[in-house]
């Protein structure tokens, strides 16, 4: 199992891609927020995903007990995913935190979201060096295959994790999210949800 600070000294980006980067001013603003409340929302979303996409975490087989560090390199925090089928969790970590992980998947937020939402091909992102994988690459491949098959929409998952008020707010915010996608080029939802 690997251990290290969340901060990445080199993210392996080639700098010549068209993957949008999160604005530095926005990242500085987010850095002021405590990771605890975000961890609570994401933890609830992980449990809801496990409930609504039952095959998502069970499909990982022996990799379901692994620790995945999902590291958006243009944000001030990363996410530790533990996809255990009976008690999945996602924890937001500040860049100064250290943690144990089996697999680290790093890249700009837009690349990671695009891969989850099916807007970008994971293999293409890896070979173009827009994302980097460290540690257990077999676990990373299993996670990618499981998320591809589950056709996850993180926008819907997070809104749903907040109960009926969150779902209602999600319906109201979806048109704004579509506009934000067109402006930023970031896949905030699955493409088929944008029709």
> What's the story with the biggest beta sheet?
5 strands, mixed
Helix content: 40-55%
Kindly provide the radius of gyration, computed on alpha-carbon positions and rounded to a whole number of angstroms: 16 Å
Query: Would you state the CATH class of the domain at 22-152?
Result: Alpha Beta
Count of discrete alpha- or pi-helical segments spanning 4 or more residues: 8
Percent strand equals 15-25%
Termini Cα gap:
42 Å
Low-pLDDT ranges = 7-16
Read across the widest sheet, the strand sequence of neighbours is 4-3-2-6-7
Return the CATH architecture of the domain at 22-152.
2-Layer Sandwich
The ordered H/E elements are: EHHHEEEEEHHEHHH
Q: What's the CATH H-level homologous superfamily of the domain at 22-152?
A: SCP2 sterol-binding domain
Characteristics:
5-stranded mixed sheet, two-stranded antiparallel sheet, 7 strands, 195 residues, Nonspecific Lipid-transfer Protein, Chain A, 8 helices, globular
Account of the protein in words:
The structure is a single chain. The chain has 195 residues and is of the alpha+beta class. It has a domain at 22-152: 2-Layer Sandwich (Nonspecific Lipid-transfer Protein, Chain A). The chain contains 8 helices and 7 strands. The strands form 2 sheets. A 5-stranded mixed β-sheet has the order 4-3-2-6-7. A hairpin with a 6-residue loop joins strand 3 and strand 4 (89-94). Helix 2 crosses helix 7 (154-161). The longest helix has 22 residues, at 163-184. The chain is globular. It starts with a strand and ends in an 11-residue tail after the last helix.
């Amino acid at each position: 199992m690997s251990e290290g600070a969340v901060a990445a000294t080199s993210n392996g980006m080639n700098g010549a891609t068209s993957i949008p980067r999160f604005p530095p001013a926005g990242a500085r603003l987010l850095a002021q927020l405590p990771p605890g409340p975000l961890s609570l929302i994401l933890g609830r979303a992980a449990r809801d995903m496990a409930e609504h996409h039952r095959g998502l975490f069970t499909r990982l087989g022996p990799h379901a007990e692994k620790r995945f560090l999902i590291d958006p390199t243009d944000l001030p925090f990363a996410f530790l995913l533990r996809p255990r089928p009976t008690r999945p969790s996602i924890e937001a970590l500040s860049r100064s935190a250290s943690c144990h992980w089996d697999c680290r998947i790093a890249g700009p937020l837009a690349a990671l979201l695009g891969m989850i939402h099916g807007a970008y091909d994971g293999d293409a992102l890896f070979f173009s060096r827009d994302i980097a994988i460290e540690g257990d690459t077999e676990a990373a491949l299993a996670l990618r295959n499981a998320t591809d098959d589950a056709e996850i929409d993180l926008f819907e998952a997070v809104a749903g994790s907040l109960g009926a008020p969150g779902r209602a707010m999600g319906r109201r915010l979806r048109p704004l999210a579509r506009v934000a996608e067109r402006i930023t080029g970031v896949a905030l939802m699955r493409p088929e949800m944008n029709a």
